[in-house]
Amino acid sequence: MTLRTRLLATTSAILIATTGTVYADGHATHPVTGETLASDQTFTYRVGDESPSIDPGLVEDVDGADVVRDLFEGLYNQDAEGNLVPGVALRHEVSDDGLVYTFTLRDNAKWSNGDPVTAGDFVYAWQRAASPELASPYSWYIDLMSIENGGDVIAGDMAPSDLGVTAIDDTTLEVRLSQPLPYFPQMVTHGTTFPVHQATVEAYGSDWVLPENIVSNGAYVLTEFVPQEKLVRTRNPMYWDNENTILETVTKLVITDENVALTRYLAGELDRTDVPAGQFPRLSEQYPEQAVSVPQACSYYYMFNLRDGAPEELQDPNVRKALSLAVDRDIIVENVLAGGQKPAYTFTHWATAGFETPDIPMATMTQPERNALAQELLAEAGYGSDNPLSIDLVYNTNEAHKAVAIAISQMWKQTLGVETTLANQEWQTFLEARSNGDFDVARGGWCADYNEASTFLDLMQSGSGYNDSKYNNPEVDALLAEAKTANNPQANYDRVEEFIARDTPIIPIYHYAAVDMFAENLEGWPYENFEQNWYSKDLYKIAQ
Amino acid sequence: MLSFIVRRLAVAIPTLLILVILSFILMYAAPGGPFNSERPLPPEVLANIEAKYGLDQPFWKQIVNYVFSVVTQFDFGPSFQYKDRSVNDVIAQGFPVTLTYGFWSFVVAVSVGVSLGVAAAIKQNSFIDYFAVGISIGAQVLPNFVMAPILLLVFTLWLGWLPGGGWSGGQWQFLIMPVIALSTSYMASIARITRSSMLEVLNANFIRTAQAKGLPMRRVIWRHAMKPTILPVLSYLGPAFVGMITGSVIIDVFFSTGGIGQFFVNSAFNRDYSVIMGITILVGTLTILFNLVVDILYAWIDPKIRY
Predict the structure, then answer these.
(1) Are strands A522-523 and A390-396 parallel, antiparallel or unpaired?
(2) What is the predicted ipTM?
(3) Which of A133, A151, A359, B257 is found 20 to 30 A from A331 (Cα to Cα)?
(4) pLDDT (tens digit, 9 = 90+) per residue, A468-502?
(5) Does B41 touch chain A (CB under 8 A)?
(6) Which of A151, A254, A267 lies nearest to residue B164, judging by beta carbons?
(7) What is the rounded CA–CA span in Å between residue B46 and residue A2?
(8) Which residue of A has its CA nearest to B169?
(9) What angle do CA A70, A74, A80 make, to 5 degrees?
């Protein structure tokens, strides 16, 4: 017996011994639900591109974050609904002024080499993530968490050791904030806040994440990592909750073309893949148990250029509002995209936690009513058949964006007689044009960083680096600033959405949905988790 | 001959240098940069990153530093996009993959292409000729981005014979579809060039002479017709070989092979400057090298050529 098969035999023996009943044929049952488990507990899924990094301090994309959540464990995890559940931390206390968080860590958390996971590991990881030396593209997250001195450490004005995070003892972690942040505990489920093993990082430098070097504390360990091909992780026998982990092996395959991925899914090579745009109706009819559409925390919108020197006609709020009214969102979501997306009349995604979509007048009108109002507004602004409005619309090269742009330009043409010139640009060129204000109307898409409405609405702040419209309304700025520390900011968010509807710096078009194919016997996927944060340790396959 | 090789190699160095400088300038002239994203980074974060990768230095200094570290340490620097890897890692991982399926595609394209071409020429206007020409035209009009999904549909989804992609260290099952998809259009070109070249040679006087002195046809073809036939094919094969072993992004995209072609195209989209440069230099060097090899082979086969 080789070492590898012996290890496998040992882990499956532990698995069988601790996870419920074992049948004579070796099939185990799920410890909670009692379902009969499949003998093959592997999960293989598709991603479209290689992630920039799987180092918790450097991770920046969604696919990378999925891997990091399996390999490492932070203070808290999320359950299937997105609620916080203990990770390395069991609980926390907040000081009366809301500025000091004290986390109590479990004493049985271990690294994959057997070392205990301590509060000091978190201190090291957070200081490292903020340090100019690592130069992480996600270092701003430390500042976003309002950790004391975060901004100064990132800017290099203070040493990383001045960051407001201290290990009181091995199981007590103290975090000091520069301002109260009611949703701070939600933010520690992000990879940037996960611990790293100091001795390993210092020994191997940037090579520490390679399979032969890595030491991690999550439910899985990295066993194979071939960029642009695959990344394999297998269960970590040192993980404190290993006995409740069911999947043995999780494989991420990089498959660039989504149609190829679908073919391979249908051939049984994959357990999860994305549904290519426009194919959801067909697939959900053919495979109703497998094609799934769930809300995804992103909003799709068009932005107007409100800078000085931008086209004069778009500076009139009535013109912008007319253009917004004339967009028939129902046609976009039902006929163009057809993947369970929802029409958007607010910027904040309808499924955002604690957010009630306010009553925007436009949302309750019928499309003919909207069109009539749009024609009226545009005529008032002085545009009509004798003086047609003409605008340039720019989007980044992509089939779906193109389809939406063509549909909308037709709606504008038919309802308002507006002449639209469409232009698509390669991604980097597009980003530069947009941030330089080199557009009339441009496509935008924004995804939540955390599950709270401010992750969307902060874009409307005049000083936001992401406010490419350059919308500037002091009342909106004040409402958003106040919302940061308010116990119930909903009223402020309602007002901001009303301002967006009134001033129309952007046209919200639709709220995203994630459309995927899932193997029929895969269970435990957190469909209700709005951020789609999934943990392989919660997944399992049932026998069929 | 030796002095010819030395001369050619000496010219290669300034050629490569011009390639590096031009690529550098074009790359920087393209809008955007490696660290632009939908969410612009806060200025202090961007400053840290640019300092880490030396992008805060003047342009000329970046070129000089780059060329210096490539020449003296053979170090192409860190990848700006894949932060867990260096450019040397990227090439070390992707190039052997591409080299493997490129080499086998070359073998298939040349052996099948030349055989088809020769057979078609010898039996001109026969069934074999029409068959060979038909196949090569079919292969030519079926580009690999059409061929690849068809292969996947047939061999993976319908028949279930072959894995739909991946590499797994280059096991044969993972090689078949990439090799078919990559070799067919090259094979078609080789067959057509071989056929027309062979037809021309067969009508030449020295072939008639050989036949007139009573040599059997097989011997005429192998001894006398083959060498001159292969010359135009050879000049096509040099660049074709480089094209195959430096990767086809189509193959990497459709079969998830993880070869160098995918890295090359992604690096252009991501403005991953160091990877763009690394692969450009690799492809440039190979192109120069194989053109030289073709020239040497030419001299060896064709006694009319003198250097």
Answers:
(1) unpaired
(2) 0.87
(3) A359
(4) 999 999 999 999 999 887 878 899 999 999 999 99
(5) yes
(6) A267
(7) 49
(8) A226
(9) 60
